[in-house]
Structures are given as structure tokens and as C-alpha cells.
Amino acid sequence: MSASCDVLVVGGGPVGACAAHALAADGASVTLIEKEGQICPPVSGAHANCGLLMPSYVTPLAAPGALGHGLRWLRDSSSPFYIAPRPSGALLRWLWLYRAAATPARARAAAPVLHALHAASADLHDALAREGGERWLYHHDGIVQAYEAPDAMDEAADEAEAARGLGVRADILSPAEVRARFPGHRGAVAGGLFFPDDGHMDPALFTRAMADKAAAAGAEVRRGTEAIALEPAGTGAVRVVTTRGDFVADQVVLAAGAGTPALTKGLDLALPIEPAKGYSVDIERPDDFPELPLYLGDAHCVLTPLGDALRLGSTLELSGWDMTIRRQRVAGLRRAAERVMGIPADAPVRQVWRGPRPVTPDGLPVVGRVSRRERVILATGHCMLGLSLGPVTGKLVAELAGGRPPSLDLKPLSPIRFG
Ligand SMILES: Cc1cc2nc3c(=O)[nH]c(=O)nc-3n(C[C@H](O)[C@H](O)[C@H](O)COP(=O)(O)OP(=O)(O)OC[C@H]3O[C@@H](n4cnc5c(N)ncnc54)[C@H](O)[C@@H]3O)c2cc1C
Questions:
Q1: Where are the alpha helices (DSSP H) in 5-130?
Q2: Is the pTM of this model over 0.85?
Q3: CA of 33 to the centre of ligand 1 (A)
Q4: Could you tell me the distance, in angstroms and rounded to a whole number, from the CA of residue 309 to the centre of ligand 1?
Q5: What tens digit of pLDDT does each residue of 254-274 get?
Q6: Per-domain boundaries in the chain
Q7: Which atom of ligand 1 is the closest one to the Cα of 33?
């Protein structure tokens, strides 16, 4: 016997939970499956991420400058961006596609795509937060980026100027204005940027709230259920073989983050998505740390206040599925917080976490149908933006599944754009 539903969503991260919610709210009979025993588990890419909502973030991962830094940092495993050298055809293909995408023209073309996704998602985040945002510590009051080196500040100001051209609001801050917002700031500061339309929240609490909302709207949420393979079900539907029996669904949404390529192999689709490991450390929030996230631009370290905790996070490591915690990378985050904010690098730790971001070579998500299997919708590859873009992806998935024209152009997000 197989269980059946209109739409089966695979993956209980922010993208899958938002998709299940949007589909159920649309009236579809939805089942959401998550392989672990909880929604947004520690092995997901979002469990303890930096919690930023970043409509201001319109520079894709594959930007020309990023490539230069990446090559310089390649051999330093304590640097913010690290590629563990290893013989991997998938990694070589990813790097090749990344190199091709990291041109000024491609980055310029990607920026309005990201901006449109962000703008729509920010409105949806606000609407969701109106019905209980305090449950996931939702704040929509901006974020600050601060720079120690004058040339890094100049580069960031130029980027902000370009983003302004798309409608992103960004204010330049003097060193005194940065210090006024962060009384604990005691490092060098050349200046900063304030992005008033950005925000922050707790990623795991948000994702679980979305799964709860999906369940309240009629979705079935099955934890501890891992998708193993997809097969044709004979009736045009899709059979999803799982560790807890088979499901037959009219349509399937693959939202398994960096685990999605393992499921598309059987669909003759080699998705170039790598698990890019990132880290976070939670410590007690200093009394004088305001309700405002701070990104230390030179060190690539984010400090996000979450209730009585302060989360230090980021770094990007392409080590495949090696999820070993490299202590020097955690130490790098703590040293940056000590140098700039005077937070002792040996202050007691509440939690150290690492998780895989699903990164595409061009820095854009993958949202759309798989051409050879029209009943399968992909919703993955959100790189460092899955929390920010979860709601708009959910909306796009519901539009596709419901047979309605998508409200945004999906061509740049096509699953087959990499060949
Ligand atoms: C350190 C760090 C900081 C970050 N900071 C931010 C930030 O500030 N803002 C932001 O927007 N984004 C941030 N990100 C990125 C964001 O977390 C990812 O883009 C996001 O996790 C992608 O969401 P997802 O739902 O696609 O995938 P995931 O969150 O990885 O969820 C996928 C889920 O699918 C499940 N799964 C996998 N395979 C299967 C299977 N076969 N069957 C069933 N279930 C399966 C997994 O267990 C997992 O729960 C950060 C990431 C990291 C690592």
C-alpha cells in the first residue's frame, strides 16, 4: 500500500516548510517529509544560521571580486572562504561553472533577479510575522555592516551605490555613527553601511513555525522519513520511495537543500550544487549589544542578537560532505568578535554548529520543473539566502503546482540552465 497526496514536499528546511505552507494554504493535499526526527534539524543548512533577512544582498556569490579572494584564500583553512583540495569531478565542474559565472556582466544580470526575489519575499515575511513573528524573534529594523580597512569600506560603498540603482536603501555611516549604534565597538572602524530594509530572526524557530502553519492548514508532516528514489507511478504520477514506505503524488517538490542532487540523479539531471559548510557559535549576549545585527566586513563575521544569545557566524568551506568542525575556523569567528567588540574569545559557548549551504555556481536558486519529469518541481540552491527567500520560493512553488503562471520570471532560475 502507498500513501497518496496531491503534492509531496521532500525536505523540512526553510524552503520545504514554506513550500508546504503555501501549497496547503492554496488548498492542495500536501505531505511534507523530513529525513531527521525534527523540522530544521542540526544537519540542515539552516538550523543555526546567521538568521539574517537580506533584501539588500543583490551581489551573487559568483561575483568577480569573490573569485579573486577565493583564489587567495584557497590554501588557508582558517580564511573566510576555503576550498579543501580533493579529486572530485563534481567540484571541478562546479568551479568551472563558477568561473564562467563570475564575470561583471553575469553578476550585473543576476542582481535584479535577486532583488525581485528579495522584494517579494520581504513582503511575505512581514505578512507571516504579523501572525506570530514574536515566536521566531522576528525583527525588521535593518542591519549594519562595519569595515576596519578604508579600502574595504570604499569597495562596500561602491557596491551599495550599485544596489541603490535597483532600489535597495543603504545609508553610509561615519565611524562615530557605527560606534553610537554599537557602544561595545572598540576596534578600528573606517565606516559602515546601514540597510534599513534588512532584518533578523531565529531560523529554526521560523522553519518549525512554518511547518506548524502548514499542518494547521491541513498538511501532513512526517518526520524521520527519508526519500530514497523517485519512480514513475504508471498513472503519470510520481512514486517516492522512502525509508517509511512509498508515497504516490501527483506532483513532487524537491526541497532537500544540498541533499537534492542525490535525488535528481535518477531524473538524468546532474545538478551542480555543492554543500558549502558554514559555522556559527552561540554565546551569551553582552548587555550592551543592541537588537541589531552587525556584519564585520573585513573578517566576514556576522553577529546576530537572538534573545539572550549572540550568534557569531559565517565562513564558507567547500569540503564536500566532510562536516568535520575545523576548530581554527570557529576560533577565527571568536577572534574577530574579540578584536572588534571586545567579546572575550574564551567566553562560555552555548552551541557550536556547522551546516551545509546548497550553493549553485552562479549564486542563484534553482526553482522550476524538471523538463524530463514534468511532475517534479525543484526548489533548492538558495546558497546563503534560503531563510530570506523561503517565503517567495514557497509562493512560486504553489503557483507552479497549481498550474498558474509564476509571479516572477523563472527563466534565470531554471534547473537546466547549467546544461
Ligand atoms: C553558517 C550559515 C549562515 C547562514 N546565514 C544565512 C542567513 O543569515 N540568511 C539566509 O537567508 N540564509 C543563510 N544561510 C543559508 C541558508 O541556511 C540556506 O540557504 C538554507 O538552509 C537552504 O534551505 P533549504 O530548505 O533549501 O535547505 P536545508 O535548510 O538544508 O533543508 C533541507 C532539509 O532537507 C532534509 N533532507 C535532505 N535530504 C532528504 C531526503 N532524501 N529525504 C527527506 N529529507 C531530506 C534535510 O535533513 C534538511 O532538513 C546560512 C547558512 C549557513 C551554513
A1: 14-25, 64-73, 89-101, 104-130
A2: yes
A3: 14
A4: 21
A5: 999 999 999 998 888 999 999
A6: 58-101+146-197+274-359
A7: 43
